[in-house]
Amino acid sequence: MINLVSINIVRFGILILLQVLVLNNIELFQFVNPYLYVLFILLLPVQIPHWLIMVTSFFMGLCIDILMNTIGMHIAASVLVAYIRPYILGVLIDRGKKDAEISLNFRQLGFERFLLYAVIMVFIHHTVLFYIEVFRMTEFFSTLGRVFLNSFFTLLLIVMSQFIFVKNTKD
Q1: Non-local CB neighbours of 134 within 8 Å, separated by 6+ positions
Q2: pLDDT score for 98
Q3: Is 49 within the bounds of a domain?
Q4: pLDDT band at residue 100, thresholds of 50, 70 and 90?
Q5: Is the pLDDT of residue 99 over 60?
Q6: How many structural domains does the chain have?
């Protein structure tokens, strides 16, 4: 349990620093800025109570908002993703696996299920984030284009991080 807490605290800090110091300085095509910090919410263990996931997601969004001076946009997107997370996992994970201690990574969930989970969560996160940022429907299609492009590059980073950092365990 202590190991699980320390891993998630370190992951929290690393993803915030990576987002603020590195990824925010990357702008591809003057349009794309990946938001890898959402990976923290995706990888939280299934056994953590829902309220705690929402609180930690709030603090993740708060840290990003403070460091990026965005006044609540990331909090709203992060808390919404944390709120819907159990429902998405309920569809994707077998009931027997929910009770067992599984890690939400592509090795234990399977690549297809993990990718589907990540696509849904990242797309919802980015949709909320970018439409709050624009806050008008006159730019609906350009904002939707930003959502798709940013989601693609964020998902690319998530998949790469899974291949790099997840140990290959034999079941």
Answers
A1: 143
A2: 55
A3: yes
A4: low
A5: no
A6: 1
163 φ/ψ angles, rounded to the nearest 5 degrees: -70, -35
3-state DSSP assignment of residue 70: coil
171 located within any domain? no
Does 30 fall in a domain? yes
Reported as a single tens digit per residue, the pLDDT across 121-152 is 999 999 999 999 998 888 899 999 999 999 99
Cα dihedral 52/148/73/47 (nearest 10): 0
Element (H, E) at 118: helix 111-134
Percent above pLDDT 90 for the chain: 63
pTM: 0.90
Q: Closest Cα to residue 64, out of 83, 31, 38, 25?
A: 38
Residue 170 within a domain: no
CATH code for the domain in which residue 74 is found: 1.10.1760
Cα separation, 5 vs 13, in Å, equals 12
Q: Angle at Cα 45 formed by Cα 73 and Cα 148, nearest 5°?
A: 40
| Structure tokens that stand for 94 in this block | 């077998």
